[in-house]
Q: What sequence folds into this?
């Protein structure tokens, strides 16, 4: 059987050679410039275009992508830019003072001096191939010198100024050499709510405090912890009024979406390109992208099987409630403390199931914490009744229910009330739509009463679709007997396990 | 019917190429989801020397749902009933798609080595086991001789 691929959009990374894109270059002063550049052009070409408009020297402009300075020789196409992407810039005046915003890219030259090693699970990805091909196609490099040297040559005169510059330059040098290549950023996969699919993510960052994109990081991120909210990565905010050294990372879909707003792409930390061509433990196929559980063997599932496994476990209520990660899916092999640690992965199940997942998660939280769900028609709100009264009133729908039998509130014994529900009212002559609806409700109630039995642990109406008489409640985990409607015991097992 | 999933093909190939000791599982000629299984009674157990026929069926949802397994050969065991149905959690709520035909059959083989009369399926067998283990084991051994002898299975 042929190996198939999960569909991952790489469209924006594969552009035809003469394509032009317009890029917005934004300085901290909120001046923005729009430049049309060819994707085979270099960052220096872009700087020249902006410099012409801004009436400054190209060498005074610094462009940043994802916390990294872009070197002049970097090709536009290697930056993973979409149309109208905003690059943050800061101005480097000849007196050594920096100002301004920033935010974009890095260069393939970084590869030689790459210090940060990608984590074991972040090794070469299928995306590398794409970029490597692009790089080999080359471009007219006007200047090959590296940035520190060039900067140094700009300095003359005053010793203090020189020293201050040298310090800055050396820090820039570190930043450049430590920078992870843009290719590493593409290893972060996202679920894009607009594309409704898994896409390579574009990693962006800004200053955690002032939000400025003109922020340079000391090293590039190489794993998910590095880009989390408690990242250990530090850097320098180029906003002169800000002294914050902590970056805030965020991800965008690699596809350009008009009016792209934060939150439309969410990172999928467990999903990775299947560079080692590992078989899915469920279907045995080798797929291009896989989900890896965080257990030490790193059990691998393809995304199709994850969808199926997730859907099955969701409908059978086999998700688990984890104190930190909430309602989630455990590793199918049963490895301890191995589960999906980020709930957005369940977007992969599709919007409808994701909504159901969120509902179930909320319900599970209520039930696990001693609450109950309102039995009112179409309600299901979580309730934490304060008193021991038998009457429970829902704050949302005002439905009044009985704590004992979870049916509508009634006076007297629950069994007698149930009998009264079964009274035949068909002889009564009330013929209007309301009565009809009431009779539907009654029929539906009757159907539920006929086809279900009530879990002796939590009163959940339970339908048995097959199998033996030994039921395990998916909500409260009570083991009970379908025949006796009592907790499962040895006699049940011996006498009527299979009916 | 849709083609056989790669997973089932691979499991079948592996079962044939690297069979588990004491277990054979051969797919039916007409239906690749139906397996003719023979489990040898484990040594040191009253089922030693017996060959037990089972049927195993992979439902359409497999591996998202568990295989259906049943003993065809009569067996005197507190966790297996007269109809050959088996009391095993991994065939029910403890099923996981990471389990395989191979692991299921190994679990069944282990169940033969370690009957659990405290979690019985057949109460009278369990009672026998608990009140007079020696006699129950004797009976299991007799049934093995009576119903599970090698030539019985082969001639079937």
A:
């Amino acid at each position: 059987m042929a190996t198939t691929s999960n569909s991952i959009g790489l469209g924006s990374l594969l552009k035809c050679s003469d394509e032009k894109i317009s890029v917005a270059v934004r300085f901290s002063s909120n001046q923005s410039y729009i430049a049309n550049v060819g994707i085979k052009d270099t960052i220096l070409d872009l700087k020249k275009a902006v410099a012409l408009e801004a009436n400054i020297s190209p060498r005074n402009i610094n462009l940043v992508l994802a916390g990294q300075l872009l070197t002049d020789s970097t090709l536009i196409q290697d930056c993973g830019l979409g149309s109208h992407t905003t690059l943050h810039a800061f101005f480097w005046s000849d007196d050594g003072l920096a100002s301004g915003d920033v935010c974009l890219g890095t260069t393939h030259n970084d590869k030689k001096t790459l210090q940060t090693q990608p984590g074991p699970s972040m090794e070469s990805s299928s995306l590398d191939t794409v970029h490597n091909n692009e790089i080999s196609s080359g471009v007219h490099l006007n200047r090959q010198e590296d940035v520190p040297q060039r900067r140094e040559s700009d300095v003359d005169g005053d010793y203090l100024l020189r020293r201050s510059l040298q310090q800055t330059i050396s820090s820039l040098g570190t930043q450049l050499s430590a920078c992870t290549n843009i290719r590493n950023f593409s290893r972060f996969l996202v679920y894009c709510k607009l594309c409704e699919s898994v896409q390579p993510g574009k990693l962006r960052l800004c200053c955690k405090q002032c939000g400025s994109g003109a922020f340079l990081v000391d090293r590039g991120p190489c794993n998910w912890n590095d880009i989390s909210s408690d990242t250990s990565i530090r850097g320098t905010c180029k906003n002169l009024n800000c002294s914050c050294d902590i970056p805030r990372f965020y991800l965008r879909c690699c596809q350009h979406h008009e009016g792209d707003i934060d939150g439309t792409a969410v990172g999928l930390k467990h999903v990775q390109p299947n560079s080692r061509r590992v078989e899915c433990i469920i279907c045995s196929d080798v797929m291009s992208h896989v989900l890896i559980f965080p257990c030490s063997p790193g059990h691998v599932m393809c995304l199709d099987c994850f969808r199926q496994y997730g859907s099955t476990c969701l409908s059978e209520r086999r998700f688990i409630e984890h104190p930190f990660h909430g309602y989630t899916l455990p590793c199918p092999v049963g490895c301890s403390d191995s589960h999906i640690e980020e709930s957005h992965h369940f977007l992969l199940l599709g919007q409808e199931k994701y909504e159901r997942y969120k509902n179930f998660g909320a319900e599970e939280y209520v039930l696990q914490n001693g609450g109950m769900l309102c039995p009112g028609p179409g309600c299901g709100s979580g309730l934490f009744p304060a008193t021991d009264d038998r009457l429970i009133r829902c704050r949302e729908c005002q439905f009044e229910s009985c704590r004992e039998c979870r049916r509508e509130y009634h006076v007297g014994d629950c069994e007698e009330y149930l009998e009264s529900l079964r009274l035949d009212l068909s002889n009564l002559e009330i013929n209007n739509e309301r009565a009809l609806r009431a009779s539907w409700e009654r029929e539906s109630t009757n159907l539920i009463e006929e086809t279900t039995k009530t879990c002796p642990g939590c009163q959940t109406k339970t339908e048995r679709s097959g199998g033996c008489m030994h039921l395990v409640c998916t909500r409260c985990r009570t083991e009970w007997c379908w025949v006796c409607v009592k907790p499962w015991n040895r006699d049940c097992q011996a006498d009527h396990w299979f009916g | 019917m849709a083609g056989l999933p790669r997973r089932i093909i691979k499991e079948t190939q592996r079962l044939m190429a690297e069979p588990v000791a004491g277990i054979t599982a051969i797919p039916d000629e007409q239906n690749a989801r139906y397996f003719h299984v023979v489990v040898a009674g484990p040594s040191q157990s009253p089922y030693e020397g017996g060959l037990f026929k089972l049927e195993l069926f992979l439902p359409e949802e497999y591996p998202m749902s568990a295989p259906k397994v049943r003993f065809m050969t009569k067996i005197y065991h507190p966790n297996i009933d007269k109809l050959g149905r088996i009391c095993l959690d991994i065939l029910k709520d403890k099923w996981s798609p990471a389990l395989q035909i191979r692991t299921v059959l190994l679990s069944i083989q282990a169940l033969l080595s370690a009957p659990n009369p405290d979690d019985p399926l057949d109460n009278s067998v369990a009672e026998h086991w608990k009140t007079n283990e020696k006699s129950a084991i004797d009976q299991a051994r007799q049934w093995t001789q009576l119903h599970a002898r090698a030539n019985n299975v082969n001639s079937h």
Summary: Helices of chain B lie at 6-17, 101-113, 123-131, 133-147, 150-155.
